[in-house]
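sorry to bug you again but im stuck and you know this stuff better than me. below you get a single protein, a line of residues and a line of whole numbers that encode the local backbone shape. mainly i need to know what kind of three dimensional shape the backbone takes. anything you notice is useful, everything is just below:

***
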Amino acid sequence: MRRALLAGLGFLIAATAVGCASGPTLDDYAKNEPKLVLEEYFDGELDAWGVFQDRFNDLRRSFVVEVDGSWDGETLTLVEDFVYEDKTTERRIWTLQKDGENGWRGSAEGVVGEAVGTVSGNALNWAYEFDLQRPNGDTLRVSFDDWMWLQDDRVLINRAYVTKFGVEIGTLSIFFRRKEPLG
């Protein structure tokens, strides 16, 4: 009985490890259209809607965002104005710079060090550590594995996996829509 239990536990651990290692990669999106050109998509005004769900899929927070983006040829600046369901507000200003042909680096208040991302096809994968402000005033340092997919010339879907010590604590889903189509 003990052997069967240990074998079953070993199988479960192995299956979990294989499942975690088999997630999407940027290569999976390389041929997808339309191509995401970050500095074009985010240059202008956008609206966004989002939710944060905890690891049990319970809705913890919802929000709307107005984004004002500008590209000066070297720096993409995103001014994000959040309004949460409880009517609290927050402003986050991202500054992003190209890093090679498909790479990006960026910073914003709360980001620890630099955010680093790569574009491939219609997708961007963006990774960074972030100090979340908790309601009691404390901060919680978490890691973001952030994926964005351009759907058409106006809509971009963003799904971020939020972890602490490698354990997923929640997901963030945001839907962006440009006020004016690209081009």
